[in-house]
Amino acid sequence: MMRSRGYLAFIIGICLTAATCYAVITTQRQQAQATFQRDAEKVARDTEVRLQTYFDMLLGIKGMYALEDRIDRQRFHRFVTELRLERRYPGFQAIQFVRMVPETELAEFAAAVRRDAAIDAGGYPDFHVHPASRRDLHYIIEYTEPLKGNENAFGLDLAALPPHLRALELGRDSGEIVATERITLVQDSSGEPGFVARAPVYRNGPLLQTIEQRRAALVGFVAIVFRVNTLMREVVDAALLDHLHVRIDDGGYPGGKDLLPSSVDTLLYDSAGKVSTNQPRSAPLEGMALQRDLMVGQRRWLMRFEGYGGARYSSSPLPVLLIGVAGFIISALIAALLVSTRRVIDAKHGLEYSLAELERQKSNVEQARSDLSVVAETLKQAQTNLQTSEKMASLGALVAGVAHELNTPIGNSLLTASALSDMVRDFERRLATDGGLKRSVLEAHLADARKACDIMNSSLTRAADLITSFKQVAVDQASGQRRRFQLDDVVHDTLATYAAQLRRAGCEVKLDVPAGLEFDSYPGSLSQVLSNLIGNALLHGFEGRESGAIAIEARREGADLVKLRFSDNGAGMTAGTLHKIFDPFFTTKLGQGGSGLGMNIVYNIVTGVLRGTIRVESEPGIGTTVLLVLPTRAPEGAVQEPLHRPAFQP
């Protein structure tokens, strides 16, 4: 009887195991499909958000024209330069202004562009409208930023290009941003797909309620030129493309506004690197295909997503195998337990032991979590202490340098004073023994005494200047007080405290800081920034070299900004080191005395205390350049001691 129950239990266990395996397979497939759908939705959402951000920036340029519809080339160039496209808006090829020019004004317009010397003193003598055509209205690219790399687009008449003309006329009549179909950019020799988004610009004043009013008031268009491949590289995670295939096709304007001929290739982007729609591609996994429509500048983009085999979307046979083996073993054990009472008792004891072990492991996990909290708090306190130590170490280095520098003038003064004392005693002896002195002896003694006094005066003056510079730098770094100061004074005082170290390193300093650059800011913080940069150049840039050169330049940028450039011709940095230069605790001198907080402190002081910006340029073997743009008047309520760098890295 007991044996029959054991066989029955074994059969039931095998059936339950098979059902569980099937359920796991189904669950894995559903989870893979859910993961695929989340990935596809995220890419579609990120693409939409990125394009909306760029279009908002385009509307911002249009808003500039709304205030004044006659923007000259210099103001347009400066506005676009301040946007810092290469860092904040990757994916742009150019930003342009397209002017509407009637046929009767075409020659006058071309002549005006040729003699436009707002940016280039020589003007643009080679400017010409191309391709040449005769029509009532011309739409000519007048401004393009940056001009370098986009010379072919300068002077391009878009009215002669049907895809561009359709988009221009639709934007003119609707007043909205309009995107072109897939185009090959004239300024891009790679042949990658691209498109242009344009927003119409109207004259100030007239009503814009009807199509006729908008046509009559049109001045031109502001435009952004995109390379789709570059744009999508900023949106899609490269690691995700090993499993997810993304394809974007141009669906034209909704409502039949744009009928795409069958011969036109509509492929805008293919993550597999394909450049045309007729290239073959492999089949996706079952249930791993999705399409989303995205409206981009009144055009419909068809985004297609396909999932392929791999660890992300494929079902793993290992869990099913483990469940099958475990189910078989468990079924066999249950059958054996029903046959043998002794085995039932043993299994009970084993279960109790497993529960006790589980409870113990749970307790260990709780203890480990508590220990990790303590360690995290300790690390935070250690970072604060290291930053304080770094600041005090910088001040200590100033003390050591000044002390070494003072040895020479004070030693010279002491030696001269001793020699003068001997001369006086010899003079007194000769005066006492000879009973009188010749005039020539007296004059020689006076000349020697005067020369000794001049030497002592020069040496002590040098020592006093060093002490004054050190006191100013030390007081500023220790107190962090805000005051008015001249930039050249702070730079000279800081360099004076490092004179000994620079001389020992054979380092030549070239200084080009004009007088009259007055700041209302924190001289101690600025001095600490310069000290850290000098220390980095000596420690890292000139290591193993017998000589080097440091250049410090300052120029006024506008009414309330100063650009300070610190450069050296040292060893330079690799791209990997440059990427992590502002990270706390990152140092190439690990275990050799470097804390890894020097440039982190520099970043925090420049952005948090001085409220400026900092950028570092470097190449191996060429040297390093640090560019600081600082306001001459620090904003009120500046943060005095930022503790860490923000997550965003310039």
UniProtKB/TrEMBL annotation:
GO cellular component: membrane
Full protein name: histidine kinase
Chain ranges of the CHASE domain: 67-304
TM spans (from-to): 318-339
Highest taxon above the source species: Bacteria
Organism field: Rugamonas aquatica
Endpoints of the signal sequence: 1-23
EC number of the protein: 2.7.13.3
Reaction catalysed by this enzyme: ATP + protein L-histidine = ADP + protein N-phospho-L-histidine
Keywords, in A-Z order: Coiled coil, Membrane, Phosphoprotein, Signal, Transmembrane, Transmembrane helix
PROSITE patterns noted in UniProt: CHASE, HIS_KIN
Single Gene Ontology MF annotation: phosphorelay sensor kinase activity
